[in-house]
Amino acid sequence: MTDHVWSRFALAPLKWFNRAVRGAGPERAALAQAVKAALAAVLAWLAAAELFELPQPFLAPWAAVFIVEATVYRSLRSAGQQVAAVGVAVSLAAVVDAVVPWQVLGMAIAVLTGLLIGQGRWFGDSGPWIGITALLLITWGTVTQSALLVDRLIETVLGVSIGLAVNALVFPPVYGARAQQATRRLASDMAELLEEMAEALRGDLSSDQADNWASRASSALVLVRQAEHSIELNRESRRLNLRQSVFVFRTPYDERRAILCGLRDAWPHIAEIAQTLRTTTGRVDPFDAPDRPSREAFATLLDRMASVVRLRAEGQGSRAEFESVLAETREALDVISDRLRDTYSFGLAGMVLPARHALRELTAA
């Protein structure tokens, strides 16, 4: 490995930390949750060991760390699941120890039974830990002491309570900015693609350009999924969140969701335009390339569609400005539709119809 590669590898954590400190992006959210998890673990240990003087209070910080979830709602749900899972694990370990005289066989039965019980959906992500926790209790020998088993339950409830309190009260996570960024990134990619196709239509089309457009349009599904996940995470983060009354986001959830749906449904039609351009670049009949005036007119339409995308997704400008740009876009669509009736170009027809459908999806909501 070269010195340059080693340098990049060594500096990667520092760059990540710099982004977390300077920008309100996913790095900062991850750093904040990690700090909160560490704080919850320390507080849970101190409470269990110093305040309640519980012996071997390992479950308290363990439970507290896993409770600091991505949203307060998930923390509350996880709290119930963890308490239930540990309760079942303690009971399972006690029963196995009482019935099975050999520790090794008891370990196998506890793990097998615990993992099978943990398949129940009501345990959620805590399900697999039933068998593991029962195993730990048996191997550490605490299962024979009923007082220690009760302590395990107390530790879990204590850790869960502290973890939930830390996540709910110390900068409870919200994802409005991330949802906006994801939607804008998707819209920006679409607008840039439309503008690049328009610019190329005014010059000389190359097969490399056309192949790149088709590939970008087809791979947009990844961006769509990222935006959908961010928006759903934002919706969930507002439930049971004390910050939701303090942080007011510019674009309400329903409107942001409608914008995303419009972008998502428009992408297949944009991909169809890119595919037609790739086909007509080789001028293979019957998909002949449109003539120069038609290409100019269609380039104007694509530019205006890009403006519609940006205004719709970014929320910039007034409603009157958006309506004005939309009217110009529809006018450009009428112009190219008239040329289609005059030229009877299959290549042009393969772009005009998906452009009409894309515009309809972008303005549906």
TrEMBL record:
The keyword Membrane applies. It is found in: Cell membrane. GO terms for cellular component: plasma membrane. InterPro entries: ArAE_1. Its main location: membrane. Keywords: Cell membrane, Membrane, Transmembrane, Transmembrane helix. The chain crosses the membrane at residues 29-48, 54-72, 84-117, 129-150, 157-175. Pfam families: ArAE_1. It is a multi-pass membrane protein. This is Aromatic acid exporter family member 1.
